[in-house]
Amino acid sequence: MTLIRKECLLFLIFIIQFCNCDDWLEPLRSRLKFVNELDKIPVQFFEFAGSVSFESNFKLLEEEDSSILVGSRNNIYNLSLPNLQEVREETIKWNCRPEDEELCYLKGKSFEDCQNFIQVMAVLEQSSLVLICGTNCYSPICRHYRRKAEGGYEVEKQFRGRGYAPYHPSQNSSFLYTSGHLYAATVADFSGMDALIMKDQLRTEQYDFRHLNAPNFVSTLEDEDYVYFFFREVALEVMNCGKSIYSRVARVCKSDEGGSHRFINRWTTFLKARINCSVPGDYPFYFDEIQSTTNFFATPGSNQVFYAVFTTPENSIPGSAICRFSMDDVLQSFDSDFQNQESANSHWLPLAPSQVPSPRPGKCNNQSSSLPESNLHFIKNHCLMEKAVSSSPSMPVFIRSSDSELLTKIAIHPGVSDLHGNLYDILFVGTNRGRVITILTSSDVPDIRTSEVLEELQIFNPTEPVLSLKIVAPAGPSPQLIIVSANSVKAIHLHKCHKKLPDSVLGCRSCVSQQWPYCAWDMVSGTCVEHHLWSNKTQLVQAENECPTQLGDQWGINFEDELLDEVGKTERVRDKKELSFEMVENYTKELILEQLVVTSEVTEDPHFISVNLVLISVATGLVSLFLGFVAGLLASRLCANKFSQLGKSSEDSVDGVNISTFNKRRNTNEINLPINPNTQPSTNDAVVDIPAKPIKQGKTSEISKKVKRMYI
Questions:
Q1: Bridging pattern class, strands 245-253 and 271-276
Q2: Which pTM does this prediction carry?
Q3: Per-domain boundaries in the chain
C-alpha cells in the first residue's frame, strides 16, 4: 500500500509540474516584479555606526554650527555635518572610576550595565565650557570640560550628578539648560523610585505621589517665563477606579528660588495638568501615553503651538496619534480650578475659588522665599489642575492603527511655503520598527482629512526603534534630518527634489504629484528643482494641470494617462484614520508608481486593469478544473490496476502459504514427501517442518480450521 501511494503521489506531482500555468500568470508576475523593484530603491543617507560587539546607546545631546554631539557608552562623539564624520580630536573618552565599577558589580549589575553612559550635555560659555553628566556605573557624576586652544577638552571640575543624570539609560529622563541653570527630570536613587524635577537644589516633594507617580519623562521646553516638563505617569485621581496612565504637562517658574523654612529646597510654583489627545465623541477614544513632542513654534497668527505623539496603553488596542496643541490652551488649564481630595477614599473634585489663597499659587514671583507658608502648604497638596489641556483641533491630525508599529519620536519643519505661498507643517515621525514617516499638514488649518503621508522610509532594521529625531540647519540651503537609534546615527536630506530612481526619469507630473512643498518643475530646463532657491519663479510650476500636455518627449518616453489616473485614484482613497500598517505598505508601493514610467524589465504595460485580472482568474480556474479532472481520472485508473493485481495474487496465498497444496495434504491426514528424492519442491509450496510421525486426526482438523480462518 505504501508503494502504491508513493507512485500515485509522484504521478500527481508530475502532472502539476508538467502542466504549469506560467503563461497565465506572466502578466501578474510582471506587475509584481515591477513593484518589488521599487522596494530596492536605496535611500541616500550618511551614517555613523556604533560598535558591533556591544550596544552603544547613542543619545543626541547638542547641535553646534557645523556638527552634532552624540553621547554614547564611555564616549562623546563630535560628528561633522553633513556627512557625519567623526572629529577624532574632539572626541571625549570618559570611563567609570574603578571604585564605582567595583561597587556596581557588588550591587548585582552586569558588565554591560556597569558602564558610563553619557546622558546630559550643555554648553555653558560660548562652546568653551561644557557640562557633561553620565551614569558612571550607577553612580551619576557631572563634569565641567574646558576646550583647549590646541584642540580637545580637559576636565575642569567634577561633582555628583545625582538628580541631574539617570542611573541607567533605560530610565527615561529629560533636561534643559537655560538662563544659567540646568533643569533636569529624572530619578535620584538606585531603584528608580525617587523621581524628581530639579534645578540646583530645588526639587519636587520626595516620595509624594501627588507630585510625581512613577513618571516617564519625555521632553523639557521653555517659554519666556516658565519651563515645561512633558511626561506620562500613573494617574492618582483615578486610582479608586483602577490603574491608568495619563499624559501630563508640568511647569515651574524660571524665577522660582524655593520657599522659606522647611520649603527652602522645594518648588513654590510646581503645577501639573493632564494633556488630552483623543478622538472626540460620546465615548472618546483616548491616546493616553505621550511619547514625544516638538519644540514650541509660532504660527502665522503668532500663537505658540507644538505637536506631540501619543500611543494607547500596552494592554489596549494598539494605536498612535499626533495631536497639535496651543500654548493658550495650556495657560488656560493652569489658570483653572485646583483639584482636591478630602480623604484617601474620596473622589478628586475641583476646589472652590474661595479656598484658594492669594496671591494665586503657581504664579511667578520674584521673591518666592517671602511667600507665606499657607501658599506653600496649599501648592504642596494641590498641584493638580482640574481642566485638561485639549488639542487644537479637537481631532488628532494623524492616526495610525497597527498590530506591531507604534510612533515613537517626532520632529517638525514648520511653515514651509509652496510655490503659491501656502504654508505647511512637515512632520517627521519615527517608529518602533525603524521607520521614518513624513506627514504633510496645513499650517493654517491642520486637520486629519487634509493630512497626507508623503513618504515612508525604512531607516533601521525593523527591530531597531527610532530613539531621536532632529532637523539641523532648517533655514539653510540643505537642511538634514538626524535619526538616532541605539547603535546608529544617520542623516538624510529633507529636500528630495533631485531624487532619481533606477531606469526612470522624473517627469513633470511625477515631480509635482509627490506634493512636496519644496519641489517645483522647471519648464525651461525640464528638471525638478527646489523652488526656494530660485528668485525668478515664473518658469516654475507646482500643479499637475500646469504640466506640459506631451510628457516625456525630450526623452522619447510615452507616459500612460491611464496609469497616472489610477495613481491619482489611489491617492484619493487615502484616509489616515483607517489605514493599517499593511495597508500603508501597499499604498506606498502604489504611490511610488507616480515616479516611474515603465522599466526595461517589463515588456508589457505594468498597469494591470481589473478586466484583465478577471479574465485571467476565470481562465485559470477553468484550466485548473480540467487538469484536476484529468489527473484524478488517470490516478484512479492506475491505482485500480494495482489493487486488482494485488487482489488476484492474494486469492491463492496467505502470508506465503499455498492454500491449494495445503488442502491436498490435509485430505491425506499426513504430510506427503516427494516420491522422487531428486525432485525439488514447488516454489509455491511452503517450507514446513516435517514431524517425526503422522499427524493425528484431531490435530488435522485444528489445522484445517486455522487455515480456513486465514483464507477467509
A1: antiparallel
A2: 0.73
A3: 2-27+611-649, 28-44+484-610, 48-161, 171-396
